[in-house]
Structures are given as C-alpha cells and as structure tokens.
Design brief:
Elements: E1 3-8, E2 10-16, E3 27-31, H1 37-45, E4 48-52, H2 56-70, H3 81-99, E5 102-106, H4 121-128, E6 135-138, H5 139-154, E7 156-158, E8 163-165, H6 178-185, E9 195-199, H7 205-212, E10 217-221, H8 225-237, E11 244-247, E12 257-262, H9 285-294, E13 298-309, H10 311-315, H11 320-329, E14 332-340, H12 355-359, E15 363-370
Parallel strand pairs: 2-6, 3-4, 4-5, 9-10, 9-12, 10-11, 12-13
Antiparallel strand pairs: 1-2, 5-6, 7-8, 13-15, 14-15
Helix pairs in contact: 1-2, 4-5
Keywords: Methyltransferase, Transferase
Protein name: Class I SAM-dependent methyltransferase
InterPro entries: DNA_methylase_N6_adenine_CS, N5-glutamine_MTase, SAM-dependent_MTases_sf, Small_mtfrase_dom
C-alpha cells in the first residue's frame, strides 16, 4: 500500500488512496487557514501536496480559489473536434492533478478531525469499505464521496419506472434518461421475451425496465463489484428480485436469451480510472465483446439491442462505417433503429468547447439480429 510522509512535530505517515488514480504525492507539507490561494496553487503545480489541518469550510474555499486559478477550459483552439476532445481531456487531467494536491486525513473510523467538518463516516464506509487505519485522500475525492452519498440516499427519478434508482459511489447514475426511454419503448422481438440479458447493468436500471415490461427472467451482468451490489439493492427496492438476477464479472452469462441489451460506454478512449468506466471504453473493447458474442447467445428470432450515442462519430473517434462493419463481421444485421436527441444540460452549455458536437448528438437503439 502506498504511504505518504509529512512532518508535524515529528515525522508521520498514512496510507494514500485515490479512486481516480492520482499519483502518490512525493512531498507533503502541512497547511492550515493561513495558507494563501496563490501559494497553494503554486505548490500544487510544483507537485507538493498540502495536508489540511485547518477549518473544513476554509479548505473548501481554498479549493475553489485554486480552481479559479487553474481555469475551467483548456486555452487555445484546436483544428478538429477530435483534437479539441483530447485537448480538453488533457486539461481536465491537469486540473484534477493540481486540485488533488489538497489532502485531508481520514482517521481510523473514517472520521474527519477538522473544525466544522461534517460527519463523513457513513459516506466513506460505503465508498471505501471497512477502514484499515488512517488514510489520506484528496479533498476533491472526499467531496465526491459525500455527493455520491446524497445521490444514493435521494436517488434518481426514472419516469419509465415511475420510481427512483439509487446509484452507489463509482456507479454511473442514470441521469441521462434518453437511453432508458429507448429501452422502455422499443418493440420487443416476436410475441414476447421469456429471458433477457442486460450486459453492463450498472445501477440495474435497464434490467428493471425490462422486468417491468413483462420479461419473465432478466440476467444482469457487470464487471464491477460495486455495480453488482448497487444493481442488487435497486432490484430489491423495486420488488423485482424474483425476476432479475445479477451476476459477473463476465460480460455474457451462460445460456441464450431472446433479447440481449447492451449500453456500453460511448467513448472509445482509455479511462483514467475505474470511475471512468461508465463513460470510456478503451479501444471499444466492451462494444466489440457484445457484438462478437451476440450471435452465439441469441435464441432463434431473438434480437440484440445496442444503445449507443453517435458522439464518438461526431468527435472523429469512430466512424459509422467502422460500427456497421463490426456488426456485419459479427454475423449480424440491422433490423431497425430508434433515435432520440439528448436533453441533458451540456447540450445547452454554449461555453463548452464541444458545444456544437454535443448539440448535434443522437442516441440510437440499434436492433440487431443474426444473419
């Protein structure tokens, strides 16, 4: 386990943990309410981490001041949407590294021994599991853990279910409802579906939609243990435990199904950490796995539903021809497609350097059959 060291009367140490894959700080100094934002920003840019020992609310104010100095978007312009995407992604990684240098120390019981600090123990227990002693984390990560706890408690209302889905920390939340609505309204193959697979289930929202549509048995898979635990909890909350079984980590479960649904990450780029797995699919690996395995897992007359945004195509990261060639190469054909336009907030954000691309985005449910 990685360990950080700092001097506070004497030399001290603690385990280092970063869910987002931030590197181990090599130099750590103690900081408190006397630390100026300009100095904090300079030290962080130089690679020095600041272990906060002052007031919790002052730490948040310092973090916001550092953020203003970093900026919100990469300077300069790119010649293409793909270059803009990569430029913005590199800038976000830089911003995360700088802001991630402001650290806090979680005690053995995951408490935070700072003035005016909230009780973070339950949120940290849910995110990190059983404590193994004091651990240092970035303040940005702790704030994300606290935000995730609120999402988990409050839930996300899903109109297609007329109920709330409760995402866990590190599991992609169904805040973009258009892909859920596609699965809720696309015509089921044949005269009905006895068994369906939901690959990469996440919170379990699509598995729940299929069960509510009358599919007698749904097998939901996910590579992430966190996602599987989240999906099982949501299935129980919705009273669907008798219809939905959650398993993994393999992409496909055993057997065949009349319907196989897959909503893979839409961007074929390398994730920075496991927290990015809901957005980035390195090399299109999950998409390729779904397509290559589909023909051997469908019942006669069954369909595979691929729910996919064309954002990667508009960014120049994958072409429509490449997608259709992969479909044909897997022994599949397109029997239908249902399109929708996203309505999330980023579509309306004109300050986003990729606004034009996002405003034109289309999300599709591709209906695929063997042959």
């Amino acid at each position: 386990m990685s360990t950080i060291h700092w001097i506070e009367v004497r030399t001290r140490s603690a385990r280092w943990h970063s869910e987002s894959g931030l590197p181990l700080p090599r130099r750590v100094v103690v900081a408190d309410d006397r630390m100026r934002a300009a100095d904090a920003h300079r030290l962080a840019c130089e690679g020095t981490a600041l272990l906060w020992r002052g007031d919790f609310h002052n730490a948040r104010q310092l973090l916001r001041a550092m953020d203003r100095r970093v900026g919100r978007a990469a300077p300069g312009a790119a010649d293409s949407p793909a270059e803009t995407f990569h430029l913005q992604r590199r800038f976000r990684a830089h911003r995360a590294r700088v802001l991630g240098k402001l650290l806090v120390l979680l005690e053995e019981d995951h408490s935070l021994a700072l003035r005016r600090a909230p009780d973070v123990r339950r949120a940290c227990d849910e995110a990190y599991g059983v404590s193994e002693g004091p651990v240092a984390v970035a303040l940005t990560e702790l704030l994300g853990v606290l935000g995730a706890r609120q999402w988990r408690e409050r839930g996300v209302y899903v109109p297609a279910l007329e109920a709330r889905i409760h995402p866990h920390y590190g599991v992609f939340a169904p805040t973009r409802g258009e892909y859920v609505d596609l699965v809720a309204r696309a015509p089921l193959p044949g005269t009905g579906v006895r068994c369906a697979f939901d690959l990469g289930t996440g919170t379990g929202v699509l598995a729940a939609v299929l069960a509510r549509r009358g599919v007698g048995r749904v097998v939901a898979t996910d590579v992430s243990a966190r996602a599987r635990a989240c999906a099982r909890e949501n299935v129980r909350r919705l009273g669907l435990a008798g219809s939905v079984r959650v398993t993994g980590p393999a992409l496909y479960p055993e057997g065949r199904a009349g319907l196989v649904v897959c909503n893979p990450p839409w961007i074929p780029a390398r994730p920075a950490s496991d927290l990015d797995l809901g957005v980035y699919d390195a090399g299109g690996g999950m998409l390729d796995g779904f397509l290559s395995g589909l023909a051997g897992r469908l019942e006669r007359g069954g369909e595979g539903w691929l729910v996919l945004s064309d954002l990667a195509e508009r960014l120049g990261l994958r072409s429509r021809e490449e997608l259709l060639t992969a479909v044909e190469g897997a022994g599949l054909r397109v029997v239908g497609r249902v399109d929708t336009r996203p309505g999330h907030a980023r579509v309306r954000d004109t300050d986003d350097p990729l606004h034009a691309v996002r405003a034109a985005e289309v999300t599709s449910l591709w209906r695929l059959a063997v042959g």
